[in-house]
Design brief:
The protein is α+β, with helices and mostly antiparallel strands. It has 14 helices and 21 strands. The N terminus is likely disordered.
Amino acid sequence: MKYTPRYIIGATLVCFQAMSAPAQDIPGKEQVVEIIHRVNEYWQSLHKPQEWAFWDVAAYHTGNMAAYEATGNAAYRDYSEAWASHNQWKGAKSDDRSTWKYHYGESDEHVLFGDWQICFQTYIDLFHLDPDSAKIRRAMEVMEYQMSTPNEDYWWWADGLYMVMPVMTKLYHVTGNTQYLEKLHEYFSYAKALMYDDDEHLFYRDAKYVYPKHKSVNGKKDFWARGDGWVFAGLAKVLQDLPADYQHRAEFETVYRDMAGAIMRSQQAEGYWTRSILDPEHAPGPETSGTAFFTYGLLWGVNNGYLDPATYTVPAIKGWQYLATFALQPDGRVGYVQPIGERAIPGQTVDANSTANFGVGAFLLAATELLDYVERRQDSVFAFSYFKGNGEDGLHLAYSYDGFKWAALNNDQSFLKPELSDDKLMRDPCIIRGGDGRFHMVWTVSWTDRGIGYASSDDLIHWSEQQYIPVMAHEPDARNCWAPEITYDPDRGIYMIYWATTIRGRFPETQIEADNGYNHRMYYVTTSDFKTFSETKLFYDPGFNVIDATIARDGNRWVMFLKDETREPAQKNLKVAYAESMEGPYSKASEPITGDYWAEGPTAGRVGGEWVVYFDKYIMHRYGAIASRDLVNWREVSEKLAMPDGIRHGTVFKISREELARLEGIQR
């Protein structure tokens, strides 16, 4: 089954987000990032990663990994790696299955207790970043043994749904074993029957707190905020990973949405939630862990199309305002976290000095989801450069507000006619915005030339004189220069231009007659001014015929998407490689990330909190796209894509709304 969540990321969503909360209440990206770093660096400065793998520490690491994914700060990943290694990539460590237990316990025989299994979430996330089966061997051993038993009552307390539900969906994506999804529903059904209140749409912490057996001090139903926070955040994580065609998906969506409504209605005017959700007087005053989980879950629903932005953005932002202006202390400490427990306790002190690892983790989840929200609202739109036909009429441009529905500019007429080479073509136009603020473009000038084209512009309308760069003129046996791309390293102020070339006899292959004897490798030059260039060097030799590479930065690493052009046996798919610096060396190419079709001309960008790779399904004569949050697990989103007719290989980049307005005013 393929995972395709029911996202609604369209112009309507963007519009609603913009109008749903006062602009002055929504922080800027830099402010959110600063808070993430302040909170996380404060916590890590006081706590070494060599701590146990029990739930409280492991819950922090789920937030730490979200912070790493959002900011790319390698220190955060290293911190979780050190913690995982310290714990031997295990939870409870007993190897004697006859002693394994799943009631509450902090000793090593409680292997089946969910509080010892939440650590597997982080281990799996780290596995995706650097696949090594040792990282998930224990997780698979434990969960597969658990699933082999007839027991269904493993999740007997609300917290357990956050601890283990995401482990099940994550392992499903690693293994493809559908038993993880079958048991997910079985265990969830037990927990729901035991603890869920169908009238209030909230979960009791466990069976002993079910009304009327247990009541608040005022005789009301007593729903513990952190307990329901665990469940609500866990549902968001699970919905993110459930396959679109999973037979029980609608049930999970319904519980999530019903909980969202109950949570929104019980929010206090100051933005927080009290420890007893429906009886604020039972244990009055703010509490951070429950509030952070609720804020995260609401923002996730708004960001991903599960919740109406016009209804839920304001309570989500109010929750964040409490977290950022009241719970967060100037030094980075997260206060007002109820200590470890299982209920709202009347008279318990919860103040600015009350902090805990799991509360910091919840705060980081909320902060990173807010960062996703803010990035979606920024005053910019997507642009796409492309060519049509054989490239005779030059540069075409399209735009999109959501990254999926694209409209051609200038009535789909050319913005720039090609002037270089005998063929005068402008194929594969790659445009980036450089460190100087200008747009820089390179393109293929001919099927057989040994150079490429270059031009620059301040506004995409008025272009510099077209410049021919003879990058392979020194190689008399070079047959071509195809699909050049530019990538900019802002830390060094250097541009790298790279392209595919076949040099006769340089990389012979068995099927020399296939594909007209082409056997490309990637070559490159660097420049800081597009006037002088380094000498041409071999850039990437994956051991097969490779074309159409494009590179993007992901935090502290560089990611290259490329086409495996092997003809026998046919590949014609897209793969990924990684490097620590722009110029490499790059890793071995991954397994294919595209499906059972031929694809070429990838270009990649961030759409919300995900990477989206666009590409030409050239045999089918249409464009396709795939998406991923971690650059490892990919899903098809081609069905969401609407592109101008006849669009061919180009690049995605960002422009301002003012720049778009000027482009829309052009009619040629």
